[in-house]
């Protein structure tokens, strides 16, 4: 029992990282780096239903308060939960933020821009979203218009990618896997008639779907949600018997992109490798798209010269080849401090030092059975200076003043983007870092 | 009347200093700083410190390692505030020392000593959180406007070439140190021009002369521009801060320029070490490298429990 509650705490600490990511994404959206029409609709719902998921009344008040704070106090929600709440919240943010009429990045309710995340976090969050979207788009673009394809998002949490992609690409099926509680909350958010988030997922909303009004009701509701092309499935990724849960909704012969955006890094390395091997085995044609932190190592094999630009779409950038700071490779002290900082929130990240370099990440996939020629691993500093078109970079640079170039490079150096395919070759115009 | 020694003690212990005392301190500091020239002349020996960024406990560690003023003569190259959780205490401690020992500690302005930057990077928020109003922030910003722009260090014999100290670097609009003396510095840091460049520019090894800075202010300057500036002004070294260096300090351009960074484990996240540079009477360089200390200061709640990551 004691062990169980310890594990529950661990899981809820990991679940809490969902809200970190979402809060970063909201900040990046409000600053004009990305445009995500669904994020402002999703957040008030999440705050409401997350609060309902908590049994203790006082704890739920604290949870609500913390979430409001995490979303910069922009979502004005009263203690009561009713269907108008979400729209009120939505109005409070959109009234003053009319798309197109206001210059992005100059949110009127944000006369003091510092209420949002710091520029270095905004820039890094944008890069994360931008680079993952690049590869996702490439994956989709390489399919025929009538060729059915799938995306499985591991630990999809509060991601809005499905809302954005499904209406655009009729040949796409999107499957989201996450903890049961996270799925329940997302399911409620999607089904809320006032925000109509079910529409982009082509879910026929029936009024029979009653939304919970209190914790008791929340406990009773299902966590799964299905439409012809969207599936939200509660699973424990550490227990591979979830195959039975996903089999009815997936076609293992279709081209499938398996996305892990800061997900498998929270699993033990054994479990994450088993999970990757599992997908490699059940899917005929697949591609792993993995974004996660790398803690660095003292014997890193990385070589500085590539930052001068190589491959297609690359260019020279003055900040990219700076020799002033010796930050050409990931150093393990960054990873050790990251582990220490995360441990104050009870978050463990087993892969951070075990697979602390792009070389060891690549080796890990080779050992799972992928072809070394079909594995590309790049750190995000490389991605920043080699994958982003100059004009986009210039646009982004103008959004807000970023003083911390060295820090941005240092942080980016400690995140990697892995693109690894089997059964077919994902043609990429983006050259990965050459190891 | 201010009891400086008590305030110094209280600041070191992160106790809240009364708003009136801070106002008084800031007025005193302005009276002192207004008399200083844009380029301060400093005698040797002197210990040069780079960015501190509100990491009070690491600053206290620095003082323990390199000795408290007035025992050691200090030059701080700016960026006292922002990013760390104790910007106010850091700045107040330095101001108190400055008022107490005006000839033993020198402060020059960094690009973060500005209203615009501090309202984005944390100092404004910190003052608001600790005092419930922006008054304290405003008093401090008024002091920022009076900080000198650079320093010139001469060996006590006067025979050796001197050392030019500045927060950022060179400006294409400035050829001699004397030209800096002509700037009207008592203002918010402008968005461009020579004053802005001094606080914002960075050296870059792979460019011939000047290049656009990715920071959006100041310039990148190369080997040849540095050589020319050293020669023209009879200098042996440019000492500057402004850029995080993992090793605490880094010499470039055949030892003609050094970056000194004094905020260990910057932003509680970067894992770097810090350094200070001590110049002896013959301007010999000695670097002292130090690591961060894990601090716990309970009197004032910190802004966030941990540094931000992409999770």
Automatic annotation (TrEMBL), chain A:
Its EC number is 2.1.1.233. It is an enzyme of class 2 (transferase). It catalyses: [phosphatase 2A protein]-C-terminal L-leucine + S-adenosyl-L-methionine = [phosphatase 2A protein]-C-terminal L-leucine methyl ester + S-adenosyl-L-homocysteine. InterPro entries: LCMT1, Ppm1/Ppm2/Tcmp, SAM-dependent_MTases_sf. Pfam families: LCM (PF04072). The keyword Methyltransferase applies. S-adenosyl-L-methionine binds at residues 128, 155, 236-237, 261. The keyword S-adenosyl-L-methionine applies. Keywords: Methyltransferase, S-adenosyl-L-methionine, Transferase. GO terms for molecular function: protein C-terminal leucine carboxyl O-methyltransferase activity. GO terms for biological process: methylation. Methylates the carboxyl group of the C-terminal leucine residue of protein phosphatase 2A catalytic subunits to form alpha-leucine ester residues. Belongs to the methyltransferase superfamily. LCMT family. This is Leucine carboxyl methyltransferase 1. It comes from [Candida] arabinofermentans NRRL YB-2248. The lineage of its organism: Eukaryota, Fungi, Dikarya, Ascomycota, Saccharomycotina.
UniProtKB/TrEMBL annotation, chain B:
Its EC number is 3.1.3.16. One of its GO terms (molecular function) is metal ion binding. It is an enzyme of class 3 (hydrolase). It catalyses: O-phospho-L-seryl-[protein] + H2O = L-seryl-[protein] + phosphate; O-phospho-L-threonyl-[protein] + H2O = L-threonyl-[protein] + phosphate. Keywords: Hydrolase, Manganese, Metal-binding. The keyword Manganese applies. InterPro entries: Calcineurin-like_PHP (IPR004843), Metallo-depent_PP-like (IPR029052), PPA2-like (IPR047129), Ser/Thr-sp_prot-phosphatase (IPR006186). Pfam families: Metallophos. The keyword Transmembrane does not apply. Gene3D superfamilies: 3.60.21.10. Residues 108-113 form the Serine/threonine specific protein phosphatases domain. Belongs to the PPP phosphatase family. This is Serine/threonine-protein phosphatase.
